[in-house]
Known about the structure:
Layout: H1 26-36, H2 40-47, E1 48-51, E2 54-57, E3 59-60, E4 63-64, H3 79-83, H4 89-92, H5 94-103, H6 113-124
Antiparallel strand pairs: 1-2, 3-4
The chain binds iron/sulfur cluster (2 copies).
Amino acid sequence: MSVEDIFACEQCGYCCHGETTVSLDDNDVKCMCEYLQLPFEEVKQKYLRVTGTVIQMKTVDGHCIFFAGNCSVHPGRPWRCRQWPLHPSILSDQANFTAIASSCPGIKKEIGYKKFCQKLKEILK
Ligand code: SF4
Ligand code: SF4
């Protein structure tokens, strides 16, 4: 079983666009600092948007600051970015599958919801 059976990123960039980004947890921030080889304060000042306890990435021109045709911090990207688009909520509600598949052209929706879920379950095990 491989991810390619149900998903292959087409690098359309949709998931990196918008005026906000996914939120980062403590481990995401740590990994990003390590990947960028910069101290937290510098990463925060250059790349992060902190609102109360919520940490997101800054956006520029309607997309994540790290989007440059593709993800420029791919190995250090947040876990929510890693998870997309194979979100476990697909398994519990076909509407989530439909919504995600309509946003992400990399989803192989032609295999059908039932078969997609069978394969996704294996992958998420
Ligand atoms: S929306 Fe899907 S296909 Fe497009 S870049 Fe994101 S993961 Fe890849
Ligand atoms: S960190 Fe990378 S994958 Fe996540 S939104 Fe930004 S550019 Fe996209």
